[in-house]
Amino acid sequence: MIYWLTQTQAEMPETERYLADYLGEAEREKLASLRTEKRRQDWLVGRWTAKRLLQRVIWEASKMTVPLNLIAIGNDSDGVPFYQSPVSNLQCSISISHGHGRAFVAAVIKLDWPLGADMELVAPRPDGFVEDYFTEAEAGLVRQANGEGRDRLVTAVWSAKEAVLKALHLGLSVDTRAVSCLPETGDGDTAVWRPFIIHLDEKRLPRPAPDLAGWWRSDENFVLTLAAQNP
Q1: Same structural domain for residues 138 and 196?
Q2: Which of 13, 27, 29, 221 is a Cys-bridge partner for 23, taking CB atoms 3.0 to 4.6 Å apart?
Q3: What value does the mean pLDDT of the chain take?
Q4: Is 110 left (phi over 0), alpha (psi -120 to 50) or beta?
Q5: Do 8 and 43 belong together in one domain?
């Protein structure tokens, strides 16, 4: 099961209280190292959302309420987030996406499980963007859409690629055309989870990849995507 949560800055407590009550020492040091106010605010809403989600996951798994300041979020040498707690040994994998004053976080109760969560603002992107970063299959899908539907579809494809590359712990270190993501479209509400098909070009990847599944949905003016290893 994949747990997930989205939150905005408006849902966070007042900043000074947040720093005093909910961040550990290492997290305060990380916050202090961020140079711009935008990066600090995005980082804060990402950590707040991750802590709230993990608090819920720990409760559902063990019926234990862990204070948020005892849920510490760090990053390994590849930038992949992880959590630690002195009062819970629940094994979880997490993925965090944040920007534009909001965050999207996903978690599974499995350690080192391939998982990627991404959130992107729906915005117009030129044909050149599609030509440079999309596979021919993805570009062909985009050519079937127009107007706002095209903007949302291009955003969904790009976000799906980001989620898959996060799950592979590669980020944008490889050619984005090594990953092809084809979101399910058609009639109906896009504010529900729908699958997207994943094709990987193993020749362009630095190591063998796990079998992944993906999902996408709209959330107001944003697109959310998830990629995770098939159980």
Answers
A1: yes
A2: 27
A3: 93
A4: beta
A5: yes
